[in-house]
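[Automated response] Your request has been received and processed.

Submitted sequence:
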Amino acid sequence: MFNESRRLPATLVTVLDHLRDIGIDWELVVSDDGSTDDTYAIATAAARHEPRVRVVRQPSNRGKGHAVRRGVEVTRGHRVLVCDADLATPIAELARLQAVLDDGFDAAIGSRGEAFAVARPPIRRVLSDVGSRLIRAVALPGTVDTQCGFKLFDGAKARAAFACADVDGWAFDIEVLRLFLGCGWSFVEVPVAWTHQSGSKLRPGHCLEVLTDLARVRLRHGRPGRAGDPSARMRRPAGGTGSPRDPFPLPLPPRRAA
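Generated structure:
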């Protein structure tokens, strides 16, 4: 998060209440991307009252990808949820993603579906639609929505993939998922509830940055499906059970598998 002092208190209450209620072992890692407001003070105050809250802080603003990577790096859990501070996707949707990993997949990524198509400002909708087409063409064929800030990963695989990633900006999700494909690890797009939240840090002017990062992902990791790339082969869910599944089956809803 970056400069989220306005909504962070409510977000922390909501997330902590949910985690305490669902009966699992958990930790909450808050990654501050060099905020200049009271974000860090609010997060550390929460950590003093709840020992399962941990705070990592970058001394300067490095970008969302860098902050998320630092947060994932210090996690210790069997599973890792990456969640935006605005809770555009309610924390209760975690159960949907957990069910997918219980089925044997290595990651479950929230997908905004029809709600995403109608609930955004027009300029955001156009930019997102164009971006999705580029992402499919350049890095992640067969996907629909890779940029929802609500993703659940196998913990060990998440830490390995994020450690190999180097995109500091908004396209970090693309690189991490591309690394999953390159390792032959499976992920599924799962429809989740989503509501547009004001105050997004992403601006139309960031488009060039995203395009540059997307080009870096392609240059660094190559095209999916090339000879020798594990993602080109048929894969089974983690654990080796179940029938082989096409990396990019259609039709995609209600779960979109890659």
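Summary generated for your ticket: The longest strand covers residues 28-32. Residues 226-258 have pLDDT under 50 and may be disordered.
If you did not submit this request, please reply to this message.
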